Amino acid sequence: MKELLLGNKKTVILYAVIVLLIATLTASCFKISAEKSRKNALTSQNSELKKSNEKKEKELKEKEKQLEEKAKQIEEKDKQIADLEKKNLELTAARQKAAANPPQPAPTAPAPSFTPPSYSQDALNALIADMTLPKPVEIPNKGKVCYLTFDDGPSTRVTPVILDILKKHSVKATFFVVGTGNLSLLKRMSDEGHTIGLHSNTHQCYKISAENIYCSPYTYLLDLKAVSDKVAAAIGKRPGVIRFPGGGSNKVSERVCKGIMTTLTKLLPDMGYTYFDWNVSSGDAERDGVPKDQIINNVLNSGPVARGEGICVLMHDTNAKATTAEALEGIITGLKARGYTFEALSPGNFGFHHNVNN
Q1: Which of 57, 71, 250, 348 has its CA 20 to 30 A from that of 217?
Q2: What's the sign of the alpha-carbon dihedral 167, 168, 174, 176?
């Protein structure tokens, strides 16, 4: 029995020792685990701190870069300001120098000189008497009427096309002809009911020379008579309708004879002639080859058309004005759609005068 009890005691002690060892080992394990967790936490914190420091360091470098850029910009602006101040000083010095030594005006080139053709008052009076026509009877204004007019022809290529289009649409027009044109078309114009008006024999009105038709009333009437003679030979009568080259408002005539347009715009009506300017321009005189749509728009969108007034349309029929012929049909149909009728001018149609500037 004693031996049994002694053996049990030893067993209990052994168990106790084993339990103690297990407890000690468990505690050690927990301690090691805790230490490891603490180390991991410290490592993680260190990593975060490192990342944060790297980020802050990057931000600081970026700010330093921005500050360097701003410093460069400020330096550049300071340089520009310095350059402007330098230029301002140079300009001020230049102005002061110029004020102290004003430039002498360059000598003006003398105006071209020429000797106008001489004439006597008796010769002028005889020419007036020879050219005078019966005074026309005034025709009452008919309202919404369009007078299509063509200057500087007839031409060999463009005028026949225009005549064909007018015939197609049963429209009458007025041709202010020059003596150097294709005068073989005058009879067709007359036979088809168009008015032939006088423009000029030579159309010499721009050069400062003795050939300029505006040198004097006498030289103008000589030119007008020359083209009138040619038209009369072709159609058997002298027209009483005229248009001054450049219009009654032209100022080119002033270069050779001051006041001549004032004289002519009074003299010609007293001689039985009716002169016509225009109140709508097709714009084809601006240059050769003006697009046909632009010419059409210039007429249809003009102020007088918008107001429904009677209109006298300026166009040209030289060989260089092919687009005018191309635009004609659109002008006719467009005006008809707006309620316009068409007529040729006659000496009794007074009006369509510009202000006289010479």
Answers
A1: 348
A2: negative
Within 8 A by CB and 6+ apart from 276, the residues are 147, 149, 174, 197, 241, 242, 243, 312, 345, 349, 351, 352, 353
CATH topology (fold) of 143-342? TIM Barrel (3.20.20)
Residue 211 burial (10 A CB sphere; 0-12, 13-18, 19+): middle
Domain ranges of the chain: 143-342
Calculate ∠ Cα 80-85-89, nearest 5°: 145
Cβ pair 209, 110 in contact under 8 A = no
Q: What is the pLDDT of residues 173-208, one digit of tens each?
A: 999 999 999 999 999 999 999 999 999 999 999 999
The fraction of the chain above a pLDDT of 90, given in percent, is 65
Q: Which of 125, 128, 137 is nearest to 274 (CA)?
A: 137
d(CA 160, CA 268) in angstroms, rounded, equals: 31
Burial 25-46 (b: 16+ CB within 10 A, else e): eeeeeeeeeeeeeeeeeeeeee
User: By the 8 A CB rule, do 145 and 341 touch?
Assistant: yes
Structure tokens at 72: 């460069």
User: Quick one: which of 209, 161, 198, 202 has its CA closest to 276?
Assistant: 198
Phi, psi (deg, nearest 5) at residue 26: -60, -45
- pLDDT at 107 > cutoff 50: no
Burial 251-290, CB ≥16 within 10 A → b, else e = ebbebbbeebbeebbebbeebebbbbbbbbbbbbeeeeeb
Q: Report the C-alpha gap between 255 and 98 in whole angstroms.
A: 36
Backbone conformation region of residue 203, classed left if phi is above 0, alpha if psi is from -120 to 50, else beta: left
* Six token digits for residue 233: 């030979």
